[in-house]
Amino acid sequence: MSSSDFHKGVKETGRKLDGSGLKVLVVHTRWNAEIVDELVRGSLQALEAHGVQRQNIVVRDVPGAYELPGAAQRLIRQAQQQSTNLVSNVVEDLMAAAGELAGSVRGSAVAAAADSAADPIKQGPFDAAICIGVLIKGSTMHFEYIADAVSHGLMRVGLDTGVPTVFGVLTCLDSDQAKLRAGQRVGAETGHNHGADWGAAAVEMALLEI
Ligand SMILES: Nc1c(NC[C@H](O)[C@H](O)[C@H](O)CO)[nH]c(=O)[nH]c1=O
Ligand SMILES: CC(=O)[C@@H](O)COP(=O)(O)O
Q1: Contact present, 52 and 24 (Cβ < 8 Å)
Q2: 60 and 26 in contact (C-beta within 8 Å)?
Q3: ipTM over 0.95
Q4: What is the DSSP string of 187-209?
């Protein structure tokens, strides 16, 4: 593989990816923030280029890559629980509204029930999550242990929650490798922002169906 090859993005799927109805979580680290922020920008641009509405993208930050799996699981579960609560609240509101309607009183209870049901995307569960960080090898084995734990941890989050969880963690031997993969220039070379691939992958996996 030539030195420029690995900077190319993922081949387009060819399928139309309409992300307009999706709710996406982006969790990123504050470690190596200069590079991570570029990766986040690339992911957000890709999500919006595939139709995801900005108000349906939730962005949270954590200290480092080791915190990504726990944070993603916690936030995904919170959204799932919030969604469950919303459904039960709407059912209760509709029952009350039906009662009021039966007493020939229209309006507030029905409208309130309709309103709370009309905003499911903001209240609903996440359709995909992107977890973004940059690990750069130091002089100890710390890098290897974190990289192994985070990659397995994020795989588990996706499988356990059923929410496609994109592995957006660069595991680099030096900062130049990370900068190139965040689309930055190093010397005469300009890299490819892998965040763009992660945003597209999140939409594709959220829409995957039989
Ligand atoms: N060295 C890097 C770290 N280390 C910090 C850990 O991720 C974690 O925050 C700490 O061990 C407390 O639990 N994190 C990165 O994201 N990138 C690094 O290069
Ligand atoms: C990925 C890391 O934790 C690493 O940057 C820490 O550096 P060191 O191994 O020199 O402590």
Answers
A1: yes
A2: yes
A3: yes
A4: TTEE--BHHHHHHHHHHHHHH--
Per DSSP, the three-state class of 35 is: helix
**Is residue 70 in contact with ligand 1, taking CB distance under 6 Å?**
no
Element (H, E) at 16: none
The per-residue pLDDT for range 13-25, each reduced to its tens digit, is: 878 899 999 999 9
Q: What one-character DSSP code corresponds to residue 184?
A: -
State pTM to two decimals.
0.86
Residue 192 is a catalytic residue: no
Distance CA 108, CA 105 (A): 9
Task: Report pLDDT digits (tens) over 77-129.
Answer: 999 998 777 777 878 888 887 777 766 655 555 555 555 555 555 579 999 99
Whole-number Å distance, alpha carbon 171 to ligand 2 midpoint, is: 12
Provide the 3-class DSSP secondary structure of residue 18. Answer: coil
Residues 189, 192: Cα–Cα separation, whole Å: 10
